[in-house]
Amino acid sequence: MVSKNTQNRIDEILDVTEDHMRKGGFDAVSFRDIATAVGIKSSSVHYHFPHKSDLGKAVIERYAERFIKSLGQADTNAKDVQGRIRRLGDAYIGALSDKGTICLGCILGSELPSLPEDVSTAVQTFFDQLLAWTAAALGGRRDGTERAQFIVSSFQGAMTLSVTMKDPKILSRCVERLCSSNF
Amino acid sequence: MVSKNTQNRIDEILDVTEDHMRKGGFDAVSFRDIATAVGIKSSSVHYHFPHKSDLGKAVIERYAERFIKSLGQADTNAKDVQGRIRRLGDAYIGALSDKGTICLGCILGSELPSLPEDVSTAVQTFFDQLLAWTAAALGGRRDGTERAQFIVSSFQGAMTLSVTMKDPKILSRCVERLCSSNF
DNA sequence: GTCTATAATTTGATAGAC
DNA sequence: GTCTATCAAATTATAGAC
Predict the structure, then answer these.
(1) CA of B43 and C1' of D18: distance in angstroms?
(2) Which of residues 12-31 of B have CB within 7 Å of strand D?
(3) What average pLDDT does this structure show over A50-76?
(4) Calpha distance B83→B74 (Å, rounded)
């Protein structure tokens, strides 16, 4: 096996890890499985990520950055609130159709009490950012935080039920319903 | 260790298993941990549940029966729809405050793609029953199934976010919001 | 029904050569 | 950066005694 550019290899490892983790959670990931999927040995994975928690932390942090960035600017003004919430909904729909698997934050959030501390902290940071974006997107209402919690949790739940019932329409109808409400 | 009545022992095992599973999912459960918590040896757990999937299947089936039964009758008439949906919401609030952990269906639903087939089938059966109850509770509307999916998934998502953010109010406000809507 | 003992496999992790 | 080799621990599971 020829050496590869470090950043590419790291991304490859994180791609495969994210894949496995979104299917079965943190414990569904093993160094050997990841290594095999990437085409290297497990000791080489340890070279990049010494401990499993390093791997978990890196994959959720990368996911958070990508997801939040995909939402674009959450301009804090009253105009086009529905458009911005639809962007959020579309991001969830995209994440689902992407791989047919649940949002990474969703599955790791479910397992939070059993995760290593670095990882659970990173998961909570993801949700802090996501809720802050959503509250801002709602245009600075008084109860923006609570509305944001309702919207985000509804999308997450609908996404999870979509995977459980193997029916992506559950999520898309949820997005439709919330976007055509006045929040 | 003195022998115990079989049914009691089985319930003890399922209690502990449910506990562990609600904290970290299917993979967070090990025969040794369960045995230790119950006060027996792992081989004795295997006597009651030969394979791990037997344990998983039994725990979700028991959970489903208890949860659905706690909802009471879902009389199919237009009266008191809000009262019935509030019963459903209260069941979720109860499940959360019960152990401070997520609903078992919720966490196993998230991991569905990686579960043994018996277990994933049992999880889907749980949701089939829950959605059927909710659709009936909505009083036989035309789009009852879709409304039921929205309500159940919103409760599930709010429960999960409550655990993730360590704020039970996220769920209780979600219940309040949906109960005071006209569905 | 529970125990001891043990097998077979998997897992996270490290040392050291190239 | 990747490899070989290896380890200690944990895991699912079974056989057979009591």
Answers:
(1) 15
(2) 29-31
(3) 94
(4) 10
